[in-house]
Design brief:
Elements: H1 2-8, H2 15-39, H3 42-68, H4 76-102, H5 109-130, H6 136-165, H7 170-204
Helix pairs in contact: 2-3, 2-4, 2-5, 3-4, 4-7, 5-6, 5-7, 6-7
Length: 205
């Protein structure tokens, strides 16, 4: 029935391309955060904000077209959910930067390491979404690796919090916890987006 509808009413918009563009902007935003953690430059801070703005514009455009579209290449609820999930990832990346600036926190090796893993995950996610339209089996090949990045961040978070709670400076511990938590939340939303992506792959194959 879906194929018949597609022939009668061809999809009006390329949702594959929009999702791929959003995923790429997310990866670039996390890359900007990673670079900022290493040198705290105003250039990288501005780059992250620009990527967030561009990604948000893509998300809003996608939502408008989703409402207007008669047919979609796969479940429109999944399109909406994966787009929202990606948006949360880059929002928490920005929250990480803003919290560090507000609380005057200097990046430590653990924070840099956690964001490096998050960057690995968003890079893989962008690559996997890029193949979704033409080769969903290639998309599938990245799923396990992206999920592993979340497991690694969770482990790093637990180790970091264990060290934080042993600190003799409770205010510093609270500030650091805020940053660690934002990174972990970004990873959690990426993990949720991966679950939706996997469901889409299963339905396309």
């Amino acid at each position: 029935m879906d194929r018949l509808l597609d022939r009668l009413f061809p999809p009006k918009y390329d949702f594959f391309a929009m999702l791929s563009e959003q995923a790429q902007l997310n990866a670039q935003g996390v890359d900007a955060l990673f670079n900022w953690l290493k040198d705290a430059s105003a250039i990288e801070s501005s780059a992250l904000r620009q990527e967030l703005k561009a990604a948000d514009e893509i998300r809003m455009e996608l939502e408008r077209k989703l409402i207007d579209a008669f047919t979609t290449p796969f479940d429109r609820g999944d399109i909406y959910s994966i787009s929202i999930g990606m948006n949360k990832v880059i929002e928490y990346a920005e929250s990480t930067l803003l919290s560090m600036q507000a609380y005057e926190i200097t990046a430590n090796p653990v924070m840099i390491g956690m964001v490096a893993i998050l960057k690995e995950g968003t890079d893989q996610f962008a690559e996997s979404v890029a193949h979704l339209k033409t080769n969903p089996y290639e998309t599938e090949s990245h799923i396990a690796g992206i999920r592993q990045t979340h497991d690694r961040i969770e482990q790093s978070y637990r180790e970091a919090m264990s060290a934080v709670f042993k600190s003799n400076n409770p205010m510093e511990a609270l500030r650091q916890r805020e940053v660690y938590h934002h990174i972990k939340d970004a990873s959690a939303y990426l993990d949720s987006a991966v679950d939706i992506l996997h469901k889409i792959v299963v339905r396309l194959t």
